[in-house]
Structures are given as C-alpha cells and as structure tokens.
Amino acid sequence: MSLIKHLNKLFNVVIAFVLVIAVWQLVIIIGDYPEALLPSPLAVGSGIISLIQDGTLFEHLRVSMFRFLSGYLTAAVVAVVLGLILGQTTRVWGIVDPIVQVVRPVAPVAWAPFIVLWFGIGNMPAIVVIFIAAFFPILLSTVSAVKKLDRTYLKLAQNLEIKQPAMMYKIILPAAFPFIVNGLRIAVGTGWIFLVAGEMIGAQSGLGYLIVDSRNALNLDLVLAGIFFIGILGFILNSLIGVFEKWVGKQWGAQL
Predict the structure, then answer these.
(1) What does pLDDT average to over the chain?
(2) Are 138 and 187 spatial neighbours (Cβ–Cβ below 8 Å)?
(3) 3-state secondary structure of 206
(4) Residue 171, in any domain of the structure
(5) What is each CA distance from 173 to 104, 109, 196, in whole angstroms?
(6) pLDDT at site 243
(7) Residue 129 belongs to a domain with what CATH number?
(8) Residue 215 forms part of a structural domain
C-alpha cells in the first residue's frame, strides 16, 4: 500500500512538470517570444547540459547546499534551544518578544552592509543571511509550541521527579515537536528564498551567483536553468523535512 502511495505521488510530480513545460512552450508559441526574451524548454535543457559538461553546475550546487545547510541547521539548533527556554520563562519572553517583533520584519538582505563589514566576503555573508531568514520562524513556532503544551505532562514529570535538562528533551521537546516542525518547514522556504539574495553579496559561486552572472551576460537560458534547480532543490528539501518529521514521530512513539 505504501509503495502504491509513493508511486502515485511520483506520478503526480511527473504530471505537474509536464504541465509546466507544456504551458511554458505554449506561452512562447502564442506570445511569439524570441529566444532572447524567453528561452524555450529545449534551450534551457541545452544550457543545463552545458553546465553539467563543464562541471560548473555541480560546483554551484555543492556550494549553495553547503551555505544553506550551514545557515539553516545552525538557525534550527539555536532557535529551538532558545525557544524551549523562553517558552517556559513568561516574564523573560515578555521582554524579548517586542524586540523579536521589531527585528523580524526586516529583510535579511537589509543587513548586507553590516554583514559584509563584519564577516567579509565569501561563504559567510550568505550563511548569515540564511541564518537570519530561518531563525525567527523556528523561534516563534517553538515558543508558541511550549506555551501550548498540556500542563498534565509537566505535572506528571514533576510527580516522577524528572529534573532539567531531562525534562526538556524527554517531555517538552517531544510534546512540542509537532508544532515546532511547522516552523522548520517555513524556515526551509524562507531560508532557501534568501539563498539567492545571500549569494549576491560578495559571492563568486553558487546558484544565486550563477543567476546574477548569467543575467549580466544576457544568457537567459542559464538564468532559467538556475531558477529551475533552485525550485527542484527547494522541493526536495521540503520533502526531506517531512521524512524527518515522520522519523522523529516513530522514535518518540508519536503520530506526527
């Protein structure tokens, strides 16, 4: 039954991609767009093959994934730990919350001048931008999850004389995780979106750099190739979060 479910999901993905390519080609035909304005799927496919042949595609993918995972995983660990602590300290959170609500709406790229001054150029600016983009959704979802916990769990832990930090990772985290995972999913999207912006800040490699460099050279087929891979990898990352969610649910004996 599980195999049939996975095959159906794969079939739906294939159909979705075929529909996108068909609509894309139809728009070109109806609008009579030249290749210089809107490259065809065939031209983009040729561009992807050229990137594979010269090895630049895999290098861009490797660098982008390293930057994203470094920023995202660091943000996830820091935000979850802080969220678990702040969620239990109402008075402290009452002071921190207004600061978070003021800083959170500021786009991570707005900090770019300071990020470059503090961290220089290379990988760090992109990693820091991704960290900022992913941090706040995870923090807020974790704090909210802790505050919504059924107090019966905590009373039971107290009766069993379970102390910190055991209570944190044995009781609070498993109970709050179904809500925390929503923040993890949102953070994957926001962090991945700002990957491109982060790689525009002093980077000389990565998918964001590929798009900007190809745009400057008017190679729109490579621009669309970069966009294509950003979309595919974003889809894969979101799916991996779902797999992780199910794995944790099995480990903790919870249906997530």
Answers:
(1) 83
(2) yes
(3) coil
(4) yes
(5) 24, 32, 32
(6) 80
(7) 1.10.3720.10
(8) yes
